[in-house]
Specification:
This protein is of the alpha/beta class. It has 26 helices and 8 strands.
Length: 462
Protein backbone atom coordinates (compact mmCIF):
# COMPACT_ATOMS: atom_id res chain seq x y z
CA UNK A 1 0.00 0.00 0.00
CA UNK A 2 1.27 3.45 -0.63
CA UNK A 3 0.07 6.97 0.02
CA UNK A 4 -1.17 7.67 3.50
CA UNK A 5 -4.61 9.19 3.27
CA UNK A 6 -5.43 10.37 6.77
CA UNK A 7 -8.99 11.39 7.52
CA UNK A 8 -7.98 14.24 9.80
CA UNK A 9 -4.71 15.84 10.89
CA UNK A 10 -1.28 15.05 9.45
CA UNK A 11 0.87 12.00 9.96
CA UNK A 12 2.04 12.33 13.55
CA UNK A 13 4.39 9.35 13.28
CA UNK A 14 6.16 11.09 10.43
CA UNK A 15 6.71 14.11 12.65
CA UNK A 16 8.74 11.95 15.09
CA UNK A 17 12.50 12.13 15.10
CA UNK A 18 13.20 9.34 12.59
CA UNK A 19 16.01 7.90 14.70
CA UNK A 20 13.37 6.80 17.25
CA UNK A 21 11.64 4.74 14.56
CA UNK A 22 14.93 3.34 13.32
CA UNK A 23 16.17 2.05 16.66
CA UNK A 24 14.54 -1.37 16.27
CA UNK A 25 16.91 -3.87 14.64
CA UNK A 26 14.32 -6.68 14.56
CA UNK A 27 16.32 -8.99 16.83
CA UNK A 28 13.21 -10.27 18.63
CA UNK A 29 14.76 -10.24 22.09
CA UNK A 30 11.71 -8.36 23.38
CA UNK A 31 9.26 -11.05 22.28
CA UNK A 32 9.40 -13.29 25.40
CA UNK A 33 8.93 -10.18 27.57
CA UNK A 34 5.78 -9.01 25.80
CA UNK A 35 2.58 -10.29 27.45
CA UNK A 36 0.37 -9.79 24.38
CA UNK A 37 2.84 -11.67 22.18
CA UNK A 38 3.28 -14.51 24.66
CA UNK A 39 -0.51 -14.91 24.94
CA UNK A 40 -1.24 -14.72 21.19
CA UNK A 41 2.05 -15.70 19.51
CA UNK A 42 1.08 -13.18 16.82
CA UNK A 43 3.90 -11.09 15.35
CA UNK A 44 1.54 -8.14 14.88
CA UNK A 45 0.92 -8.17 18.65
CA UNK A 46 4.63 -8.07 19.51
CA UNK A 47 6.80 -4.98 20.04
CA UNK A 48 8.75 -5.78 16.87
CA UNK A 49 5.56 -6.14 14.83
CA UNK A 50 4.02 -2.99 16.24
CA UNK A 51 7.15 -0.94 15.60
CA UNK A 52 7.30 -2.26 12.02
CA UNK A 53 3.73 -1.05 11.47
CA UNK A 54 4.50 2.35 13.02
CA UNK A 55 7.50 2.77 10.76
CA UNK A 56 5.54 1.75 7.68
CA UNK A 57 2.95 4.42 8.50
CA UNK A 58 5.65 7.02 9.03
CA UNK A 59 7.13 6.04 5.66
CA UNK A 60 3.74 6.29 3.99
CA UNK A 61 3.73 2.58 3.10
CA UNK A 62 0.73 1.75 5.29
CA UNK A 63 -2.46 3.57 6.09
CA UNK A 64 -3.63 4.23 9.60
CA UNK A 65 -6.13 1.41 9.40
CA UNK A 66 -8.55 0.04 11.95
CA UNK A 67 -6.31 -3.04 12.37
CA UNK A 68 -3.39 -0.79 13.27
CA UNK A 69 -5.56 1.23 15.65
CA UNK A 70 -6.85 -1.85 17.43
CA UNK A 71 -3.34 -3.23 17.75
CA UNK A 72 -2.15 0.01 19.34
CA UNK A 73 -4.86 -0.29 21.97
CA UNK A 74 -4.35 -4.04 22.37
CA UNK A 75 -0.80 -3.18 23.49
CA UNK A 76 -0.72 -2.82 27.27
CA UNK A 77 1.78 0.02 27.18
CA UNK A 78 3.55 -1.94 29.93
CA UNK A 79 7.00 -1.07 28.51
CA UNK A 80 8.43 -4.51 29.33
CA UNK A 81 9.81 -4.41 25.77
CA UNK A 82 11.77 -1.28 26.60
CA UNK A 83 13.57 -3.04 29.47
CA UNK A 84 14.26 -6.13 27.33
CA UNK A 85 15.48 -4.27 24.24
CA UNK A 86 19.28 -4.21 23.78
CA UNK A 87 18.97 -1.38 21.24
CA UNK A 88 17.33 1.01 23.71
CA UNK A 89 14.08 1.38 21.81
CA UNK A 90 12.03 4.33 23.12
CA UNK A 91 8.75 2.44 23.00
CA UNK A 92 7.00 4.88 25.37
CA UNK A 93 7.32 7.67 22.81
CA UNK A 94 6.34 5.38 19.94
CA UNK A 95 3.14 4.11 21.52
CA UNK A 96 2.05 7.55 22.73
CA UNK A 97 2.59 9.04 19.30
CA UNK A 98 0.91 6.07 17.58
CA UNK A 99 -2.21 6.39 19.69
CA UNK A 100 -2.28 10.12 19.01
CA UNK A 101 -2.03 9.25 15.32
CA UNK A 102 -4.94 6.81 15.65
CA UNK A 103 -7.09 9.51 17.27
CA UNK A 104 -6.06 12.14 14.69
CA UNK A 105 -6.92 9.78 11.83
CA UNK A 106 -10.43 9.15 13.15
CA UNK A 107 -10.41 5.43 12.23
CA UNK A 108 -11.96 4.47 15.56
CA UNK A 109 -14.44 7.35 15.64
CA UNK A 110 -17.92 6.35 16.70
CA UNK A 111 -20.47 8.63 18.37
CA UNK A 112 -20.48 6.80 21.70
CA UNK A 113 -16.69 6.48 21.87
CA UNK A 114 -16.23 10.16 21.07
CA UNK A 115 -18.73 11.14 23.75
CA UNK A 116 -17.08 8.99 26.45
CA UNK A 117 -13.62 10.29 25.53
CA UNK A 118 -14.76 13.92 25.56
CA UNK A 119 -16.52 13.47 28.88
CA UNK A 120 -13.66 11.67 30.60
CA UNK A 121 -10.53 13.10 29.02
CA UNK A 122 -11.65 16.65 28.31
CA UNK A 123 -14.20 17.31 31.07
CA UNK A 124 -13.69 15.13 34.15
CA UNK A 125 -9.96 14.50 34.21
CA UNK A 126 -8.93 18.04 33.33
CA UNK A 127 -10.32 19.48 36.56
CA UNK A 128 -9.63 18.31 40.09
CA UNK A 129 -12.76 20.14 41.22
CA UNK A 130 -14.92 18.03 38.91
CA UNK A 131 -13.08 14.81 39.85
CA UNK A 132 -13.78 15.51 43.53
CA UNK A 133 -17.41 16.39 42.86
CA UNK A 134 -17.98 13.09 41.07
CA UNK A 135 -16.05 11.24 43.78
CA UNK A 136 -18.33 12.67 46.45
CA UNK A 137 -21.40 11.47 44.55
CA UNK A 138 -19.82 8.02 44.20
CA UNK A 139 -18.95 8.01 47.91
CA UNK A 140 -22.61 8.63 48.79
CA UNK A 141 -23.67 5.84 46.43
CA UNK A 142 -21.19 3.41 48.01
CA UNK A 143 -21.80 4.32 51.67
CA UNK A 144 -25.52 5.14 51.77
CA UNK A 145 -26.55 1.54 51.16
CA UNK A 146 -27.76 2.39 47.65
CA UNK A 147 -25.03 0.24 46.13
CA UNK A 148 -26.17 -2.75 48.17
CA UNK A 149 -29.74 -2.21 47.00
CA UNK A 150 -28.69 -1.88 43.36
CA UNK A 151 -26.56 -5.03 43.57
CA UNK A 152 -29.31 -7.05 45.28
CA UNK A 153 -32.06 -5.85 42.93
CA UNK A 154 -30.32 -7.10 39.79
CA UNK A 155 -30.61 -3.60 38.28
CA UNK A 156 -27.00 -3.86 37.16
CA UNK A 157 -28.10 -6.33 34.50
CA UNK A 158 -29.91 -3.50 32.76
CA UNK A 159 -26.60 -1.80 32.06
CA UNK A 160 -24.51 -2.53 28.96
CA UNK A 161 -22.05 -5.39 29.68
CA UNK A 162 -19.01 -3.08 29.64
CA UNK A 163 -20.47 -0.75 32.28
CA UNK A 164 -21.67 -3.70 34.37
CA UNK A 165 -18.18 -5.22 34.37
CA UNK A 166 -16.80 -1.91 35.60
CA UNK A 167 -18.71 -2.03 38.86
CA UNK A 168 -16.46 -4.44 40.80
CA UNK A 169 -13.43 -2.48 39.60
CA UNK A 170 -14.70 0.80 41.01
CA UNK A 171 -12.40 1.76 43.89
CA UNK A 172 -13.77 2.59 47.33
CA UNK A 173 -13.90 6.36 47.63
CA UNK A 174 -12.44 7.77 50.84
CA UNK A 175 -14.38 10.11 53.10
CA UNK A 176 -11.47 12.56 53.31
CA UNK A 177 -9.21 13.54 50.46
CA UNK A 178 -5.51 14.42 50.66
CA UNK A 179 -5.73 18.19 51.06
CA UNK A 180 -7.97 18.01 54.09
CA UNK A 181 -5.80 15.31 55.71
CA UNK A 182 -2.77 17.50 55.09
CA UNK A 183 -4.39 20.60 56.58
CA UNK A 184 -5.90 18.75 59.55
CA UNK A 185 -2.86 16.79 60.57
CA UNK A 186 0.35 16.97 58.57
CA UNK A 187 1.07 20.60 57.71
CA UNK A 188 1.74 21.42 61.37
CA UNK A 189 4.07 18.41 61.69
CA UNK A 190 6.57 19.72 59.13
CA UNK A 191 10.05 19.87 60.70
CA UNK A 192 11.34 23.35 61.53
CA UNK A 193 14.85 22.66 60.16
CA UNK A 194 14.15 20.30 57.28
CA UNK A 195 16.79 18.31 55.38
CA UNK A 196 14.77 18.67 52.18
CA UNK A 197 11.73 20.53 50.95
CA UNK A 198 9.58 18.32 48.76
CA UNK A 199 6.30 18.67 46.88
CA UNK A 200 3.91 15.74 46.81
CA UNK A 201 1.68 14.99 43.84
CA UNK A 202 -1.68 13.93 45.22
CA UNK A 203 -2.91 12.54 41.88
CA UNK A 204 -6.53 11.98 40.84
CA UNK A 205 -7.54 8.36 41.62
CA UNK A 206 -4.87 8.34 44.32
CA UNK A 207 -6.39 11.44 45.90
CA UNK A 208 -9.97 10.21 46.07
CA UNK A 209 -9.52 6.47 46.62
CA UNK A 210 -6.07 6.19 48.20
CA UNK A 211 -5.72 9.41 50.21
CA UNK A 212 -4.49 7.22 53.09
CA UNK A 213 -1.48 6.26 50.92
CA UNK A 214 -0.82 9.95 50.26
CA UNK A 215 -1.05 10.56 54.02
CA UNK A 216 1.40 7.71 54.68
CA UNK A 217 3.74 9.17 52.05
CA UNK A 218 3.68 12.56 53.75
CA UNK A 219 4.18 10.96 57.18
CA UNK A 220 7.27 8.94 56.18
CA UNK A 221 8.79 11.97 54.48
CA UNK A 222 8.33 13.99 57.65
CA UNK A 223 9.83 11.22 59.81
CA UNK A 224 12.83 11.45 57.49
CA UNK A 225 13.27 15.17 58.02
CA UNK A 226 11.43 16.54 54.97
CA UNK A 227 9.20 19.56 54.85
CA UNK A 228 6.26 18.51 52.69
CA UNK A 229 4.21 20.91 50.62
CA UNK A 230 1.07 20.07 48.69
CA UNK A 231 0.55 22.70 45.98
CA UNK A 232 -3.12 23.56 45.87
CA UNK A 233 -3.34 24.29 42.14
CA UNK A 234 -1.90 20.92 41.07
CA UNK A 235 -3.89 18.86 38.57
CA UNK A 236 -4.12 15.27 37.33
CA UNK A 237 -0.68 14.35 35.91
CA UNK A 238 -2.10 13.78 32.41
CA UNK A 239 -0.91 10.20 31.94
CA UNK A 240 -4.45 9.05 31.19
CA UNK A 241 -4.57 11.58 28.36
CA UNK A 242 -1.09 10.88 26.96
CA UNK A 243 -1.68 7.13 26.99
CA UNK A 244 -4.97 7.52 25.19
CA UNK A 245 -3.92 9.71 22.30
CA UNK A 246 -4.90 13.12 23.74
CA UNK A 247 -1.51 14.80 23.80
CA UNK A 248 -2.99 18.31 23.71
CA UNK A 249 -4.74 17.84 27.08
CA UNK A 250 -1.67 16.06 28.47
CA UNK A 251 0.43 19.13 27.60
CA UNK A 252 -2.07 21.53 29.19
CA UNK A 253 -2.01 19.52 32.42
CA UNK A 254 1.78 19.32 32.40
CA UNK A 255 2.01 23.13 32.11
CA UNK A 256 -0.51 23.55 34.93
CA UNK A 257 1.48 21.26 37.23
CA UNK A 258 4.79 22.94 36.44
CA UNK A 259 3.18 26.28 37.32
CA UNK A 260 1.55 24.90 40.47
CA UNK A 261 4.76 23.50 41.93
CA UNK A 262 6.97 26.41 40.92
CA UNK A 263 4.75 29.10 42.46
CA UNK A 264 5.48 27.60 45.89
CA UNK A 265 7.85 30.04 47.52
CA UNK A 266 11.42 28.74 47.56
CA UNK A 267 10.65 25.90 45.14
CA UNK A 268 11.18 22.24 45.99
CA UNK A 269 14.15 19.88 46.04
CA UNK A 270 12.10 16.98 44.69
CA UNK A 271 8.65 16.21 43.34
CA UNK A 272 7.46 13.04 45.02
CA UNK A 273 4.99 10.64 43.49
CA UNK A 274 3.72 7.34 44.86
CA UNK A 275 1.85 5.98 41.82
CA UNK A 276 3.97 4.15 39.23
CA UNK A 277 1.87 5.25 36.24
CA UNK A 278 1.87 8.92 37.23
CA UNK A 279 5.60 8.95 38.04
CA UNK A 280 6.56 7.46 34.70
CA UNK A 281 4.60 10.16 32.90
CA UNK A 282 5.76 13.04 35.14
CA UNK A 283 9.38 12.18 34.42
CA UNK A 284 8.71 12.75 30.74
CA UNK A 285 7.28 16.25 30.89
CA UNK A 286 10.59 17.25 29.26
CA UNK A 287 9.78 15.11 26.22
CA UNK A 288 6.14 16.17 26.17
CA UNK A 289 6.96 19.89 26.20
CA UNK A 290 10.20 19.78 24.22
CA UNK A 291 8.74 21.99 21.46
CA UNK A 292 7.12 24.47 23.82
CA UNK A 293 9.26 27.61 23.70
CA UNK A 294 8.00 28.90 27.04
CA UNK A 295 8.00 25.64 28.99
CA UNK A 296 10.72 23.40 27.52
CA UNK A 297 13.42 24.58 29.95
CA UNK A 298 11.13 24.41 32.98
CA UNK A 299 9.91 20.96 31.93
CA UNK A 300 13.52 19.73 31.68
CA UNK A 301 14.21 21.00 35.21
CA UNK A 302 10.97 19.43 36.42
CA UNK A 303 11.84 15.99 35.00
CA UNK A 304 15.16 16.06 36.86
CA UNK A 305 13.33 16.49 40.16
CA UNK A 306 10.67 13.78 39.89
CA UNK A 307 11.20 10.85 42.24
CA UNK A 308 9.16 7.83 43.19
CA UNK A 309 8.68 7.81 46.97
CA UNK A 310 10.61 4.54 47.52
CA UNK A 311 13.42 5.71 45.26
CA UNK A 312 13.65 9.02 47.12
CA UNK A 313 13.68 7.39 50.56
CA UNK A 314 16.55 5.12 49.58
CA UNK A 315 18.37 8.05 47.96
CA UNK A 316 18.23 10.11 51.18
CA UNK A 317 19.23 7.09 53.31
CA UNK A 318 15.89 6.69 55.09
CA UNK A 319 15.65 5.77 58.78
CA UNK A 320 14.92 2.07 59.10
CA UNK A 321 12.20 1.51 61.71
CA UNK A 322 13.70 0.26 65.00
CA UNK A 323 13.38 -3.43 65.93
CA UNK A 324 10.10 -4.03 67.70
CA UNK A 325 9.23 -6.67 70.31
CA UNK A 326 5.58 -6.41 69.24
CA UNK A 327 6.10 -6.85 65.50
CA UNK A 328 4.35 -10.00 64.31
CA UNK A 329 5.74 -11.90 61.37
CA UNK A 330 4.12 -10.62 58.19
CA UNK A 331 4.51 -12.65 54.99
CA UNK A 332 4.80 -10.10 52.19
CA UNK A 333 5.38 -10.40 48.47
CA UNK A 334 6.01 -7.61 45.99
CA UNK A 335 4.31 -7.09 42.63
CA UNK A 336 6.12 -4.60 40.38
CA UNK A 337 4.04 -1.92 38.73
CA UNK A 338 5.06 -1.89 35.05
CA UNK A 339 5.51 1.84 34.94
CA UNK A 340 7.57 1.83 38.12
CA UNK A 341 9.88 -0.95 36.92
CA UNK A 342 9.98 -0.47 33.16
CA UNK A 343 8.99 3.20 32.95
CA UNK A 344 11.17 4.48 35.81
CA UNK A 345 13.71 1.74 36.53
CA UNK A 346 12.63 1.57 40.18
CA UNK A 347 12.77 -2.04 41.29
CA UNK A 348 15.24 -2.67 44.11
CA UNK A 349 14.18 0.31 46.26
CA UNK A 350 10.66 -0.85 47.26
CA UNK A 351 12.16 -4.21 48.26
CA UNK A 352 14.78 -2.42 50.38
CA UNK A 353 12.04 -0.56 52.17
CA UNK A 354 10.04 -3.72 52.78
CA UNK A 355 13.09 -5.62 54.04
CA UNK A 356 13.80 -2.85 56.56
CA UNK A 357 10.47 -3.33 58.32
CA UNK A 358 10.63 -5.44 61.50
CA UNK A 359 8.57 -8.61 61.15
CA UNK A 360 8.33 -8.53 57.35
CA UNK A 361 9.32 -11.74 55.59
CA UNK A 362 9.67 -10.91 51.92
CA UNK A 363 9.04 -13.75 49.48
CA UNK A 364 9.75 -13.15 45.79
CA UNK A 365 6.74 -13.47 43.52
CA UNK A 366 7.30 -15.44 40.31
CA UNK A 367 7.06 -13.09 37.30
CA UNK A 368 6.80 -10.15 39.72
CA UNK A 369 7.25 -7.71 36.82
CA UNK A 370 4.71 -9.36 34.48
CA UNK A 371 1.76 -7.00 33.92
CA UNK A 372 -1.30 -7.78 36.09
CA UNK A 373 -3.63 -6.62 33.30
CA UNK A 374 -4.61 -3.31 34.86
CA UNK A 375 -2.52 -1.08 32.56
CA UNK A 376 -4.40 2.19 33.03
CA UNK A 377 -7.88 1.51 31.69
CA UNK A 378 -6.89 -1.68 29.83
CA UNK A 379 -9.00 -3.81 32.19
CA UNK A 380 -12.00 -1.83 30.95
CA UNK A 381 -11.14 -1.59 27.26
CA UNK A 382 -9.64 -5.11 26.82
CA UNK A 383 -11.31 -7.20 29.53
CA UNK A 384 -10.50 -10.58 27.96
CA UNK A 385 -6.72 -10.16 27.80
CA UNK A 386 -6.75 -8.30 31.09
CA UNK A 387 -8.40 -11.28 32.82
CA UNK A 388 -5.90 -13.71 31.28
CA UNK A 389 -3.07 -11.70 32.76
CA UNK A 390 -4.83 -11.37 36.09
CA UNK A 391 -5.33 -15.14 36.19
CA UNK A 392 -1.62 -15.66 35.57
CA UNK A 393 -0.76 -13.22 38.39
CA UNK A 394 -3.22 -14.88 40.77
CA UNK A 395 -1.73 -18.28 40.02
CA UNK A 396 1.65 -17.06 41.28
CA UNK A 397 0.15 -15.31 44.30
CA UNK A 398 -1.85 -18.46 45.11
CA UNK A 399 1.38 -20.49 45.03
CA UNK A 400 2.94 -18.55 47.90
CA UNK A 401 -0.18 -17.32 49.76
CA UNK A 402 1.24 -14.13 51.26
CA UNK A 403 -0.61 -12.06 53.85
CA UNK A 404 0.22 -8.87 51.97
CA UNK A 405 0.83 -8.14 48.30
CA UNK A 406 2.82 -4.90 48.25
CA UNK A 407 2.69 -2.78 45.11
CA UNK A 408 3.23 0.83 44.12
CA UNK A 409 0.43 1.77 41.76
CA UNK A 410 -3.30 2.32 42.40
CA UNK A 411 -4.34 0.51 39.19
CA UNK A 412 -2.44 -2.61 40.30
CA UNK A 413 -4.02 -2.41 43.76
CA UNK A 414 -7.55 -2.32 42.31
CA UNK A 415 -6.83 -5.09 39.81
CA UNK A 416 -5.09 -7.43 42.28
CA UNK A 417 -7.78 -6.87 44.93
CA UNK A 418 -10.32 -7.83 42.26
CA UNK A 419 -8.32 -10.99 41.46
CA UNK A 420 -8.01 -11.93 45.13
CA UNK A 421 -11.78 -11.62 45.56
CA UNK A 422 -12.44 -13.74 42.46
CA UNK A 423 -10.05 -16.45 43.66
CA UNK A 424 -11.15 -16.32 47.30
CA UNK A 425 -7.61 -15.48 48.49
CA UNK A 426 -7.37 -13.56 51.74
CA UNK A 427 -4.25 -11.40 51.22
CA UNK A 428 -4.52 -7.61 51.43
CA UNK A 429 -2.86 -5.24 48.96
CA UNK A 430 -0.79 -2.32 50.28
CA UNK A 431 1.70 0.26 49.13
CA UNK A 432 5.21 -0.37 50.60
CA UNK A 433 5.12 3.13 52.04
CA UNK A 434 2.00 2.29 54.06
CA UNK A 435 3.79 -0.66 55.66
CA UNK A 436 6.72 1.62 56.47
CA UNK A 437 4.41 4.29 57.93
CA UNK A 438 2.74 1.65 60.11
CA UNK A 439 6.15 0.49 61.39
CA UNK A 440 7.15 4.08 62.26
CA UNK A 441 3.84 4.57 64.03
CA UNK A 442 4.28 1.34 66.01
CA UNK A 443 7.75 2.40 67.14
CA UNK A 444 6.38 5.83 68.15
CA UNK A 445 3.65 4.20 70.28
CA UNK A 446 6.16 1.77 71.82
CA UNK A 447 8.50 4.65 72.70
CA UNK A 448 5.60 6.56 74.29
CA UNK A 449 4.67 3.49 76.34
CA UNK A 450 8.27 3.02 77.44
CA UNK A 451 8.52 6.64 78.54
CA UNK A 452 5.20 6.54 80.39
CA UNK A 453 5.27 6.71 84.16
CA UNK A 454 2.54 7.59 86.70
CA UNK A 455 4.76 10.46 87.87
CA UNK A 456 4.54 12.06 84.45
CA UNK A 457 0.74 12.33 84.94
CA UNK A 458 1.23 14.10 88.21
CA UNK A 459 3.72 16.50 86.61
CA UNK A 460 1.31 17.07 83.68
CA UNK A 461 -1.66 17.62 85.99
CA UNK A 462 0.10 19.89 88.48
S1 LIG B 1 4.33 -2.21 25.86
FE1 LIG B 1 4.02 -4.28 26.73
S2 LIG B 1 2.32 -5.13 25.51
FE2 LIG B 1 3.07 -3.33 24.39
S3 LIG B 1 4.58 -4.12 22.95
FE3 LIG B 1 5.74 -3.55 24.78
S4 LIG B 1 5.83 -5.41 26.03
FE4 LIG B 1 4.24 -5.73 24.50
S1 LIG C 1 14.39 -6.11 21.30
FE1 LIG C 1 14.39 -4.00 20.58
S2 LIG C 1 15.54 -4.04 18.70
FE2 LIG C 1 15.02 -6.18 19.15
S3 LIG C 1 13.06 -6.48 18.05
FE3 LIG C 1 12.52 -5.84 20.11
S4 LIG C 1 12.26 -3.61 19.96
FE4 LIG C 1 13.40 -4.28 18.12
Amino acid sequence: MSGTAEKGGGNLLRSLDYSVLQQCMHCGMCLPACPTYVETLRERSSPRGRIAMMRAIADGDLETSRVFAEEMYFCLGCLACQTACPAGVDYATLIEQSRAQVEASGVLDRGQRRLVRTLLLRWVFTSRRRIKLLAKALYLFQRSGLRRVVRASGLLWLLPAKLRDLEPLTPEIQSTFTRRLYEQRYRSLNPTSPRFRVGVLSGCVQDIAFSHVNADTIAVLQVNGCEVILPEAQQCCGSLHAHNGDLASARDLARANIDAFSTEEGGVDAIIVNAGGCGSHLRHYDRLLADDVEYAGRAAAWSQKVRDICEFLVEIDFRPPPASPDADVLRVTYHESCHLKHGQGVSAQPRRILESIPGVELTELAEADWCCGSAGIYNITQPEMSMKLLDRKMGHIGDIRPQVVATGNPGCVIQIEHGLRLKGLSARVQHPVSLLAAAYERSRVEAAQRDFSPESLIVEGS
